[in-house]
Write a sequence for this structure.
């Protein structure tokens, strides 16, 4: 055949496009649809779970956690140096702090209970856990405000003694972070209510959980630092 015949056949192939087998191989691994729909739903759920563990939201939560931890490391250094001064005297601990500590611990437990249901694709269970985590977190924040009010009513003011100054400073900054973490949890709860599957909110829930558990552990650390050592 001549050169003119081959050129005509190549032009015809170009107009017809790729063969059907080739077209099925292109969209995704194993020939699956590019959007993960259809019969690839199981693979899509596993992929979403893997992506959530390394999502930008979770990575950002860990970076924020590291930054806040460094902030409190600085406060701790200052506190430990100041308490060696001769005028140092520890202030009274409001008994309400026992209840507040139990509340924030229960909040983390509720959150993990919900996440465990989420890993089983039980969206309603995830919603319930998030809801209780928010309620208990709000109760902790309210309890901290009441503890402040009790101390101020008893004449323990920020300017009274160095220990009191550190108490109000550390618990106040911690309270701001609790408020931020609580807002994050509420956002995750709202998004979960609008979602039709757990996979759609997995990254948001995981990111909020990283920060929430951190501020819970941070409170235990501050409580021990201020009143137990």
């Amino acid at each position: 055949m001549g050169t003119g015949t081959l050129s005509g056949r190549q032009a015809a192939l170009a107009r017809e496009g790729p063969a059907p087998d080739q077209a099925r191989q292109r969209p995704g691994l194993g020939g699956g649809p590019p959007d993960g729909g259809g019969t690839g739903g199981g693979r899509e759920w596993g992929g979403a779970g893997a992506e959530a563990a390394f999502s930008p939201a979770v990575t950002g939560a860990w970076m924020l956690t590291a930054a806040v931890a460094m902030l409190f490391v600085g406060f701790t250094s200052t506190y430990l140096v100041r308490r060696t001064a001769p005028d140092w005297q520890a202030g009274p601990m409001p008994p309400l702090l026992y209840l507040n500590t139990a509340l924030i611990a229960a909040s983390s437990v509720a959150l993990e209970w919900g996440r465990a249901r989420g890993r089983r694709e039980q969206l309603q269970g995830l919603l319930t856990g998030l809801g209780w985590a928010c309620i208990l977190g709000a109760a902790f924040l309210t309890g901290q405000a009441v503890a402040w009010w009790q101390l101020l009513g008893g004449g323990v003011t920020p300017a009274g003694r160095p220990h009191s100054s550190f108490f109000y400073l550390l618990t106040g900054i911690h309270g701001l972070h609790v408020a931020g973490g609580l807002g994050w949890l509420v956002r995750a709860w709202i998004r979960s209510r609008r979602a039709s599957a757990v996979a759609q909110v997995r990254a948001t829930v995981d990111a909020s959980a990283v920060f929430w558990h951190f501020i819970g552990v941070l409170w235990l650390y501050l409580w021990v630092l201020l009143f137990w050592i």
DSSP finds eight helices and no strands in the chain.
